[in-house]
Amino acid sequence: MLIVLTGIDGSGKTTAARALVDSARAEGHDALLLSNHAARRRMSLFSERFGWSLPPRGADFVETCIRVVNVLVSHARALRFDGLVVMDRHLYCQLALRRAVGLGRGRLLPWLLEKLPAPDLVVHLDADPQHAYQRVMARGTDHEEVADLEAFRTAYCSLPEFNDFMVVDANGTPEDTLAQLNMVIDRKEPVRV
Q1: Does 14 reside within a domain?
Q2: Which residues, including other chains, have CB under 8 Å from residue 95's CB and lie 6 or more apart?
Q3: pLDDT at 86 over 70
Q4: 31: number of Cβ within 10 Å
Q5: 163, exposed or middle or buried, with CB in 10 Å at 0-12, 13-18, 19+?
Q6: How would residue 180 be classed by pLDDT, with cut points 50, 70 and 90?
Q7: Could you tell me the CATH number of the domain that includes residue 89?
Q8: DSSP conformation letters of the chain
Q9: Any domain includes 144
Q10: 192 lies in some domain
Q11: Do the beta carbons of residue 101 and residue 74 sit within 8 Å?
């Protein structure tokens, strides 16, 4: 089973992905965690440190290249794995990032989504942007603005693919999110709180 987790920064994707894999392993199942990052955090730290940032199209080009390579490698690994595969982020994340900064979908990402094996389940961790901002600031490894998180959340919800996502409330504790994820996986239906 292939599960993809999406959500804005600070929604708890990585924490939830690790917890889901650890939980499956604890129950004796084979599980694999694959991360599909796009180096946004590193680029934002670089920008802060040197006071220079790439324009939106330049940043998108770098992020898209890195994300596409990571997603292709992850899918290759997933094909060879018999068990639960959890992908932390996917091409949907890049499409939402593009939309959030006013860029179009382009052709490559939608084409790849058509060609790659479809996930069994895409779960969107929905977090209030203010709450997500507090989490980002608490981890202290990067910086986001509430307005950017709001735009990112709106962008996700406006993706045509979003109608097929299962939405989980990610404003609670990691344990709450894991419990909801397990219910969604068991039933393949959204849990709304």
Answers
A1: yes
A2: 105, 109, 110, 159, 161
A3: yes
A4: 19
A5: exposed
A6: very high
A7: 3.40.50.300
A8: -EEEEE--TTS-HHHHHHHHHHHHHHTT--EEEEE---SHHHHHHHHHHHT----HHHHHHHHHHHHHHHHHHHHHHHHT--SEEEEES-HHHHHHHHHHTT----SHHHHHHHHSPPPSEEEEEE--HHHHHHHHHHH-S----HHHHHHHHHHHHHSGGGGGSEEEE-SS-HHHHHHHHHHHHHH-S----
A9: yes
A10: no
A11: no
pLDDT band at 190 (very low <50, low <70, confident <90, very high): very low
In this prediction the pTM is 0.90
CA angle 190, 102, 126 (to 5 degrees): 20
Phi, psi of 113 (to 5 degrees): -60, -35
Query: How many domains does the structure of the chain reveal?
Result: 1
Is residue 193 in some structural domain?
no
pLDDT at 192: 40
pLDDT in tens, 158-178: 999 999 999 999 999 999 999
pLDDT at residue number 188? 64
Q: Are 125 and 71 a contacting pair, CB within 8 Å?
A: no
